[in-house]
User: Which sequence fits this backbone?
């Protein structure tokens, strides 16, 4: 019995991956095995870094809040502790935005917790 292959589907699959790796450097863009590995590795990095991005942004917000709080004579940990005591429920994202773009509003929050 002759070997049956579906070359149309195989070609379509390869073409799809090659299109996705277009623009990459060196053999990653035009050699099938290298392009396939590059694409798979890229997908792994994308999955991993969607979670890492959340970590990085939280870290950035904490740094911004800390810097703004220290301008008003309070450390980050003391500021956040007093926010929780007073039941002021603002996320770190909002607090960082206020600290950066609306310093008067942030000052009002600091005065409210002092």
Assistant:
């Amino acid at each position: 019995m002759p070997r049956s292959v579906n070359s149309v589907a195989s070609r379509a699959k390869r073409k799809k991956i090659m299109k996705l790796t277009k623009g990459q450097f060196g053999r990653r863009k035009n050699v099938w095995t290298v392009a396939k590995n590059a694409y798979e590795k890229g997908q792994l990095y994308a999955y991993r870094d969607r979670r890492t991005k959340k970590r990085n942004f939280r870290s950035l917000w904490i740094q911004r809040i800390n810097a703004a709080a220290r301008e008003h004579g309070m450390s980050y940990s003391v500021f956040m502790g007093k926010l929780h005591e007073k039941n002021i429920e603002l996320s770190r994202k909002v607090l960082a935005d206020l600290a950066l773009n609306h310093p008067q509003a942030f000052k009002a929050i600091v005065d409210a917790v002092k």
Remarks:
- The domain at 8-113 is CATH 1.10.1900.20 (c-terminal domain of poly(a) binding protein).
